[in-house]
# Entry
Amino acid sequence: MGLPGNTDTPSCERPNIAYHFFPEWGNTGTTAARVGKYLSLSSFPFPVQVPHSVLRHMAPPAATVAVLGDDLLREVFILLPTPTDLLRAALACKPFLRAVRSAPFLRRFRRRHHFTCPLLLGCLLHGPSDRRGTRAPHLLPAYPDAATRRVIEGGDFAFSFLPRGGWPEAAGNPWQLLDCRNGRVLLLSRASRELAVADPLTRRWVSLPARRGLGYALVADDGDSSVFKAVCVSRRVGAPGLRAFLLSSAELRWVQVAGLDVQSDLAGSRAMQANRSLYWKLVGGERMVAFNTATMEFAVLDLPPFLREISFDVIEKGQECAGGLNLLTMRGFCIEVWVGVKDGADGGLTWTLVEKSVMFHRAMAEMIGSEFFYQNRLDVIGVVAGVVFLRNGKCLFSINLETMKMTRVSRKENCPSHLIYPYTTAWPPSFPNPTEQGA
# Structure
């Protein structure tokens, strides 16, 4: 059978839109060029909606496609090398689009292509307050290409579309960033203490009930970008221990779902996230607390001694490496990946170094322009879409974990590390989203 891009005779007629507006894209070219092609298909204009006229003119299923069925088509589509190829295939005909519009399949595709899904745009920075008030957030592009700039310019990353709630203009921006996942941002109003989840690209937002907490997190569904969950971890009043509250986009109310008797507080409000679990480092650095959003259970995990004083992020390694907890850090200017596997004796984790990169000290020194960069603290900001963001002094860097290419994203940023959030577009994009089934 013929997929988009195949010169053989296809098994069903392809609509002109898939090829008139979105040219072919091979495997060659720079990262920026590949990102530009992806953006032209899935994010510009954003979000993509398949016009009803296109759906009406999509060819009816041919006999060969009908015989294959959705399950077999998905086994073919899962092998496509990039999200762009999947989106192009979904636009080919109605049977292809129906097969792609499956939440379990889209989650599986996301896990298999974690280096390219979702699409990385840059870093959302929220600088500290100064004498002129609280500065508004802004997005620092990860790639310099024109397509990325057009998407960013079309959004409002200062969140000026959110209500000020009586916050005076002289005091600056009234909203504080708490988390950022899958194109959405969780924010706290300094004026009303209410929460909000906002999409800066579409300028859509929803208000959440106020909930005081020690840590917050936004949880996305990789199979349906129209839904989300929010988690708030707070301290029990008058008793030791932590409580977890969950809010779903379907109900928009907080419900207590778990509790944990632990004396230590969270070391920071920002959560790490991987494999449907949230992680916060505890004060002291010897342990971290985990909250599983699937089972609604807490756990306390011991960390390796060397991680107590340095920063790291919890990462996903794809569907084939789901047997342990993977941590990424940088020591001696080398990227290291450690995996923790449960020890059957006491239930703790046994940590093993599974990956180590070459040293990046020479590249970093050349980009900074000084050999004294090693005197600055090196922070791991976060890992998203196969890219790790690092901060050395006031310089912000990124390293592509597939190619191990280092890029200087910014020479001078006064923003603290915990206020820098990698930002991606939503996955899945709007037109293959399962909620668009009736479009």
About this structure: The radius of gyration is 23 Å. The first helix runs from residue 17 to 20. DSSP finds nine helices and 23 strands in the chain.
